[in-house]
């Protein structure tokens, strides 16, 4: 037995193992195949896949100008030529590098400890762009100030918390048809792949085309127009081939089941991109490259936040801020709900009723982190789809999220290093994870158009609109219209005109099999009536739950222990008749 095996065994048999439901811990529901060392490796993989958010989020939100003030002129309508203003904006960016790191650390720890899910959290892509360019405007050119927009995000988190306590967000997750839920995960996989092949956060294989929107890219940076269109040199960028090398490395290492395959490839490509003397350097000899390299050379530094910490203005009298607040609410509800469910399903934590394990704690934690994130000057925090990289590495518990948080904690001190992972090193991970997540497409009910078409709309809209929320909304609306029309026509004609329901997916029976009233409210009702209450009456049924039928009843195994072991322990070996495996 190696020292790693000894460590895994010791952790599994401790209170830590029981809390995080590690295999061999004796917890009520152990998670099969979970090892402490595997969880740590998975968490670091998720961190390196998410690390780009440190620089990307700070770059996007600093475009709002933050708390910097400048008088616009005709010659300089957005103050881009004002050196003092741009210097202030750069300080805002450094503040947001620190703020993004702290937010990601706190939120990932909270989700790991309270919800026991292997999901990393950080300020969400998409919502940060909406916050910056639509609500506040480039360099504050919008109708809402930066401070007021942060106040709206703060309030949104509080509203989310109330919705989560009363089970409304969980209710929304359960009533979504199963085919659409599966399509959400597949759509997120395509969405991840689309991000991974672009230049901003990927390898740069595709680029903008003014006629067809996207086309084959891979041209050098100097060949890009101001709009980002390749003018010449397609497939001639050295960084593209570094990204493709990383993609091939990951694929080959995964084929041979090398542990840490994704992480190894990310680190290798990143290190080879740091020297300034090569053609694929992340720090070219340009003003921007010099600025990045100067920050990179600091290696260890802790930046003091002066421009973004706790900057709120609760003046909510204008209509624009309420429009922004409502938009944040519905986009975040669909985005986070879709991401969390898809990651939970990818990890095997979803149940037959359409919910996932510890969903209440997960949604409450998400709500709290939105409010906390606004205190550090950032847009809403959300679950990250890059968590799929860690799940693919074997992450199944909250230890993975805590390991991800540890990576962000270290990056507080080494932010110059962790902010310098080039997108072509992390992009291949997004493509690989996208392919893994799309594998669930086989489970969609393609035999019945009422299920298949809304599912297809869901998975197609996500990458095409660059929004998880729009994909979910499109799928749900199309499902209601298509199946609603069939239902109304069926009833109106007395069943004379009706589709073939024999191939329709019956998702509502399981979804409605459990009360929509939160468990804590059920407990209070039972106590007020003087009745006893079983906290496990709505127990989940997952793939690794085993039900053993005996003459005296049904015994459910929630620990992942084999049926033979249960039979031996309960003296049912001679009486057991069959074993059934239940999955979502």
Automatic annotation (TrEMBL):
Membrane topology: Multi-pass membrane protein
Keyword Signal: no
PANTHER family: XANTHINE/URACIL PERMEASE C887.17-RELATED, XANTHINE_URACIL PERMEASE C887.17-RELATED
GO CC, one annotated term: plasma membrane
Coiled-coil segments on the chain, per record: none
Membrane-traversing stretches: 96-117, 149-168, 180-197, 241-271, 321-341, 361-385, 397-419, 468-489
One Pfam family linked to the record: Xan_ur_permease
GO molecular function: purine nucleobase transmembrane transporter activity
Full protein name: Xanthine/uracil permease
Keywords: Membrane, Transmembrane, Transmembrane helix, Transport
Organism: Phycomyces blakesleeanus (strain ATCC 8743b / DSM 1359 / FGSC 10004 / NBRC 33097 / NRRL 1555)
Location(s), subcellular: Endomembrane system
Family from the record: Belongs to the nucleobase:cation symporter-2 (NCS2) (TC 2.A.40) family. Azg-like subfamily.
Gene Ontology biological-process entries: adenine transport; guanine transport
């Amino acid at each position: 037995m190696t020292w790693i095996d000894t460590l895994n065994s010791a952790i599994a048999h401790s209170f830590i193992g029981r809390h995080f439901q590690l295999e061999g811990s004796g917890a009520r529901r152990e998670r099969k195949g979970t090892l402490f060392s595997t969880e740590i490796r998975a968490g670091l993989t998720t961190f390196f896949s998410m690390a780009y958010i440190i620089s990307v989020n700070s770059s996007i939100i600093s475009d709002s100008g933050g708390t910097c003030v400048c008088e616009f002129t005709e010659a300089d309508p957005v103050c881009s030529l004002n050196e003092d203003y741009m210097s202030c904006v750069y300080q805002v960016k450094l503040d947001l590098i620190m703020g993004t790191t702290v937010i990601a650390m706190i939120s990932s720890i909270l989700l790991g400890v309270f919800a026991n899910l292997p999901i990393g959290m950080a300020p969400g892509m998409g919502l940060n762009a909406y916050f910056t360019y639509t609500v506040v405007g480039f360099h504050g050119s919008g109708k809402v100030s930066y401070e007021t927009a942060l106040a709206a995000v703060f309030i949104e988190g509080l509203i989310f918390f109330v919705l989560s306590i009363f089970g409304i967000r969980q209710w929304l997750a359960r009533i979504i048809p199963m085919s659409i839920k599966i399509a959400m995960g597949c759509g997120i996989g395509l969405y991840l792949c689309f991000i991974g092949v672009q230049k901003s956060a990927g390898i740069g294989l595709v680029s903008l085309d003014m006629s067809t929107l996207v086309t084959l890219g891979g041209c050098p940076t100097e060949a890009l127009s101001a709009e980002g269109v390749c003018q010449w040199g397609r497939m001639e960028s050295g960084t593209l081939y570094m990204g493709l090398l990383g993609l091939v490395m990951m694929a080959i290492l995964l084929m041979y089941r090398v542990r840490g395959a994704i992480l190894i490839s990310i680190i290798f490509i990143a290190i080879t991109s740091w020297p300034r003397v090569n053609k694929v350097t992340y720090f070219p000899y340009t003003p921007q490259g010099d600025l990045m390299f100067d920050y990179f050379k600091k290696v260890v530094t802790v930046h003091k936040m002066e421009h973004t910490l706790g900057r709120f203005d609760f003046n909510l009298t204008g209509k624009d801020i309420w429009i922004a607040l409502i938009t944040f609410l519905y986009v975040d509800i669909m985005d986070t709900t879709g991401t969390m469910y898809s990651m939970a399903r990818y990890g095997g934590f979803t149940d037959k009723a359409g919910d996932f394990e510890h969903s209440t704690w997960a949604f409450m934690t998400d709500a709290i982190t939105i409010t906390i994130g606004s205190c550090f000057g950032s847009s809403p925090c959300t679950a990250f789809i890059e968590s799929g990289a860690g799940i693919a590495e074997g992450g199944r518990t909250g230890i993975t999220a805590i390991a991800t948080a540890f990576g962000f904690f270290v990056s507080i001190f080494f932010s110059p290093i962790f902010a310098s992972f080039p997108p072509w090193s992390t992009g291949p991970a997004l493509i690989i994870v996208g392919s893994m997540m799309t594998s669930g497409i086989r489970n969609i009910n393609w035999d019945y158009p009422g299920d298949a078409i809304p599912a297809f709309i869901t998975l197609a809209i996500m990458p095409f609109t660059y929004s998880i929320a729009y994909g979910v909304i499109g799928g749900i609306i199309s499902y209601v219209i298509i199946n609603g029309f069939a239902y109304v026509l069926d009833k109106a004609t007395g069943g004379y005109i009706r589709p073939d329901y024999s191939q329709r997916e019956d998702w509502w029976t399981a979804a409605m099999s459990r009360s929509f009233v939160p468990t804590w409210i059920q407990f209070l009702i039972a106590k007020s009536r003087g009745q006893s209450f079983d906290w496990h009456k709505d127990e989940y049924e997952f793939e690794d739950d085993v039900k053993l039928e005996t003459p005296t009843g049904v015994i459910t195994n929630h620990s992942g222990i084999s049926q033979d072991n249960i039979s031996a322990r309960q003296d049912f070996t001679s009486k057991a008749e069959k074993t059934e495996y239940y999955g979502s």
